[in-house]
From TrEMBL:
<dbReference type="InterPro" id="IPR035669">
    <property type="entry name" value="SGNH_plant_lipase-like"/>
</dbReference>
<keyword id="KW-1133">Transmembrane helix</keyword>
<comment type="similarity">
    <text>Belongs to the 'GDSL' lipolytic enzyme family.</text>
</comment>
<dbReference type="InterPro" id="IPR036514">
    <property type="entry name" value="SGNH_hydro_sf"/>
</dbReference>
<dbReference type="InterPro" id="IPR001087">
    <property type="entry name" value="GDSL"/>
</dbReference>
<protein>
    <submittedName>
        <fullName>GDSL esterase/lipase At5g45950</fullName>
    </submittedName>
</protein>
<dbReference type="GO" id="GO:0016788">
    <property type="term" value="F:hydrolase activity, acting on ester bonds"/>
</dbReference>
<keyword id="KW-0472">Membrane</keyword>
<dbReference type="InterPro" id="IPR050592">
    <property type="entry name" value="GDSL_lipolytic_enzyme"/>
</dbReference>
<dbReference type="Pfam" id="PF00657">
    <property type="entry name" value="Lipase_GDSL"/>
</dbReference>
<keyword id="KW-0812">Transmembrane</keyword>
<feature type="transmembrane region" description="Helical">
    <location>
        <begin position="45"/>
        <end position="63"/>
    </location>
</feature>
Amino acid sequence: MKYGNRRVLDDNNIHESFSIRDIFFLSKLSKLDSSKMVTTISTKAVILVQVWALVLAVLMPLLSGAVDTHQVKQLAAKFNVTCILVFGDSSVDPGNNNYLATPMKGNFLPYGKDFFRGRPTGRFSNGRLATDFIAEGLGYTKAIRPFLSKRLRPLDILHGVSFASAASGYDELTANLSNVLPVSKQLEYFRHYKIRLSQLVGAREAENNIKNAVAVMSMGTNDFLQNYYLEPVRPKQYTLEEYQNYLASCMSEDVKTMHRLGITRLVVVGVPPLGCMPLVKTLMDQETCVEKYNNFSSSFNSKVKVKLADSRTTLGMKIGFVDAYGIIQDAVNNPKKYGLTETSKGCCGTGTVEYGDTCKGMSTCADASKYVFWDAVHPTEKMYEIIADQAIDSLREQLMG
Ligand SMILES: *[C@@H]1O[C@H](CO)[C@@H](O)[C@H](O)[C@H]1NC(C)=O
Ligand SMILES: *[C@@H]1O[C@H](CO)[C@@H](O)[C@H](O)[C@H]1NC(C)=O
Ligand SMILES: *[C@@H]1O[C@H](CO)[C@@H](O)[C@H](O)[C@H]1NC(C)=O
């Protein structure tokens, strides 16, 4: 590892110096209904793990046997992967929202209690996200920094950052509802990033770097949970199926824009089984996963896969898909297989409703590594690791089959 924990951690402490600004922003947000916004974030964390797996799959279709750091590095070298660029929601946001005037934040305990030095960073989990594990595997850093960080180092610019923003989605309206970064804005920041990269290494090398980068896109949950099910606008315009089609075409457009901006390798993470989220079960007053919501996740994932197949042929991009749905559902159904014991409740508070602000300062379960869910929406660091492992296997098959 080139970077010690300390430097990574210093950056992750950065949110503290912005707390006054955050409060200032929050004071202007009184009209926002934070209870609505909180829900969306957790789901995305699950997706991150999957993204990691996808990245690996894209990079290493020929890899056989267990993936370890050494292999990841070798494959990265073989495919000349030098950089990871992350887009999406809370499943892959390492703290960009700390710098935004949004109530959708996770930069307070118990979030991050199992992160290095037990520090909250803005990640919606007890520890690291899947994309962090990927970056570590590649040997760059143990924790990917948010692009909005004021302490980005040249090496972060070289090896990758996250533009993701918790509570965002494929539908721009989803991000607008929480005043977070829609994909269009994340891509605008990516343009800024390219300028900074060019200043660092020259335009030609920058182009090369981006051509050889792996982009990860992980979102979709909030479009359903934060937007369609809570806000009247979209249901008036679209049936659920039409809305899924709309989201899938938004995604398709985002892929085109990425391609135009020089990205050639992409991993898209599907939505997790929404019906298994503790919050959804609580709201629907069900002990088991809510079938209707799960169906809805799987039908959306099918539409995404069709669109991605189109993009592969029309754009000639390398695109992988991570089946977060299948991986999480298997962990929920067969916890022992993964060393898990609690699949129903989150670790934070009662484990039935808390996430985001409502999880703030809550007591937690003794051992989050036995839990699928960290809060009522987002997975634990442990679950992210599991997802990553599983996704790698399934993706390898997918890409070789
Ligand atoms: C989101 O907000 C931006 C900026 O206010 C606006 O231009 C855009 O039309 C909004 N998008 C949607 C879908 O509401
Ligand atoms: C690998 O990527 C680096 C960084 O972008 C670039 O300088 C180099 O030319 C690439 N090598 C190959 C073989 O494509
Ligand atoms: C969910 O999908 C399954 C399989 O397609 C179907 O049999 C079941 O009726 C659906 N359940 C609900 C509640 O929509």
